[in-house]
Design goal:
Chain lengths: ~260, ~280
């Protein structure tokens, strides 16, 4: 094969790769937008009757153990299921992020079924309209930082509950939590934040996963706990070693013991 | 050359090397700073410069200065008879000098008195009497409720379970007026007898200034309808008029009487009916 032949094969391969990449990107965007429509509500209902109906009722009307799901919408269902908070075997305790027993397709089916029960917030589109990082920072500090901490590390609440860290949450999960107010989190509906403002917050939360740190080591940005530990172990430890080193060898001798006058006995 | 001489020579060269490193690091620090600076490198160079200086001093103290321990006997405590007689003589001489300088003494008294009086004047800088300002906030009858961006808040702004920090229109960022607005339901909410009209359409507003130490009570637990103060964990039960249920706060958060105008916007019926924030000396009960 001559030089021109190899060139032709190479450029053909490049074109093919670029085309595949473009198709891949396009379908990735499409699945995210249409996830709520991707599921099959009938299959979801069968899964619901097996896994969810014990607490949420046969038709999602709720029981003493679990809330009514008829007006929660796709966003709440997708958030609770894809973060693994549901299914939850201890409804009187805070549900935490864990590995979901459902596959992605099963979650989509369940989300489609819950969405079919009644109106509620849909799964937000976190890329359109695009968010603004500065606006997101301002809104985050005003509305989110009180509980989730300025660095997104989460924090303690009362009654044994806590606001979780945001560093493990995907952009869609953050937007869903803002819209639906899971657990003890307040709800921020369309009257409070526009879709653009939610996307700004989502962008800022993404930024917080890897923030600029002009001060050097951030030590997890959890405040005085790690900083105090480092100060005590490294700082005080080094000072003690230096103090030991400064002392001249002649001074290390034991001082002569004070001799007690013998007539005191 | 004996062993001690060798030791001393080595210590001398170590000290000289340390001081040399200090000089180089200092020049490096100056150059880095002059070229625009880089905090981590500057900090490192400063540490090396000061560390070299310290290392050199310790070398001098340990190896070059004569080594102890030395014992210095304590001197006898009573003064000698000659010293006592000399002191008495000096004291009496001074007394004579003072009695001959009456004018200077008067001038000293004047200067001291003037300084003392002048020192009284800064008391005024402790500030004006707060007067009624601690009893009132910027909320007035008809004040429009606005969010932190200055946008008016209407009945559709919050969903049930939502919370928002709000201010009276035109007074954004006035600390004593900040209010946490919570939507508890779609119907009017009565938290206490006498507050029948204060919670229209499920909206209730409470002062965000903690009654314990004045921190912003910004943590709203939607599921339990509790407000939590991040400073000392005072917890307030919202449906009971933000009555404290845990922590050091003893007084409820003052509730802002709200109303809905004909355009569906939230407005204050009046100012808070009691002083907001922590107690103060003439607050009363």
């Amino acid at each position: 094969m001559g030089m021109s032949g190899r060139l032709a094969v190479a450029s053909l391969g490049g074109l093919l790769a670029a085309g595949l990449l473009a198709i891949g990107l396009h379908t990735a965007g499409a699945t995210e937008r249409q996830r709520s429509q991707a599921g099959n509500a009938e299959r979801g209902q069968r899964l619901f009757l097996v896994g969810c109906a014990y607490c949420h009722g046969q038709n999602g009307e709720g029981t003493a153990q679990g809330p009514d799901l008829r007006r929660v919408g796709a966003a709440a269902a997708d958030f609770q299921l894809s973060t693994g908070r549901m299914p939850n075997t201890a409804p009187d305790r805070q549900s935490v992020t864990k590995r979901s027993p459902y596959t992605r397709a099963e979650i989509d089916d369940l989300v489609a079924y819950v969405a079919s029960l009644g109106p509620g917030p849909p799964i937000p589109d976190v890329h359109n309209p695009p968010g603004d990082l500065q606006e997101g920072g301002e809104l985050y500090l005003d509305n989110c930082a009180a509980c989730h901490s300025a660095a997104g590390n989460g924090g303690a609440l009362s009654v044994g509950r806590d606001a979780p860290t945001l560093h493990g949450a995907t952009p869609v999960e953050v937007a869903e939590a803002v819209r639906t107010g899971p657990g003890n989190m307040p709800v921020f509906g369309r009257g409070t934040f526009t879709p653009q403002q939610v996307n700004s917050i989502v962008r800022y939360v993404e930024y917080l996963k890897k923030p600029q740190d002009p001060g050097g080591l951030s030590l997890g940005l959890v405040g005085p706990i790690t900083e105090g530990l480092v100060a005590i172990l490294v700082g005080l430890g080094a000072l003690m070693l230096i103090t030991r080193w400064i002392e001249p060898p002649a001074m290390r001798q034991e001082p002569p013991a004070a001799t007690a006058p013998e007539d005191q006995q | 050359m004996n062993d001690d001489d060798v030791q001393e020579k080595k210590a001398t060269s170590r000290t000289a090397l340390a001081f040399g490193i200090t000089a180089l690091a200092s020049i490096g620090l100056a150059v880095t700073y002059a070229r625009g600076g880089q905090e981590q490198i500057e900090g490192l160079l400063l540490a090396v410069a000061l560390g070299g200086l310290g290392f050199g001093f310790v070398q001098v103290a340990k190896h070059l200065l004569p080594q102890g321990p030395y014992v210095e006997d304590r001197e006898a405590l009573p003064s000698s008879d000659e010293d006592q007689a000399a002191f008495a003589a000096d004291f009496e001489r001074g007394e004579g000098w003072l009695s001959r300088r009456g004018f200077l003494l008067k001038m000293l008294g004047l200067a001291g008195g003037a300084i003392g009086i002048a020192a009284l004047f800064p008391i005024r800088s402790l500030g004006p009497n707060p007067g009624k300002s601690l009893f009132r906030t910027k909320w007035r009858r008809g004040s429009l409720v606005v969010d932190e961006q200055g946008e008016g808040v209407g009945v559709d702004t919050l969903d049930v379970g939502g919370a928002l920090t709000v201010f009276p229109q035109g007074h954004l960022e006035v600390e004593d007026s900040q209010t946490i607005l919570i939507r508890l339901s779609r119907e009017d909410v009565v938290t206490r007898p006498g507050r029948e009209s204060w919670g229209p359409e499920g909206y209730v507003g409470f002062s965000k200034v903690c009654t314990h130490a004045g921190c912003p009570v910004g943590l709203y637990q939607q599921q339990f309808k509790k407000l939590l103060c991040p400073c000392h964990q005072s917890t307030f039960s919202v449906p009971d008029g933000a009555q404290p249920v845990f922590g050091p706060a003893t007084r409820s958060l003052p509730q802002l009487p709200l109303m809905v105008d004909e355009d569906g916007m939230l407005r204050a019926q009046s100012d808070y009916t009691e002083p907001v924030g922590p107690g103060f000396w003439d607050r009363g009960t």
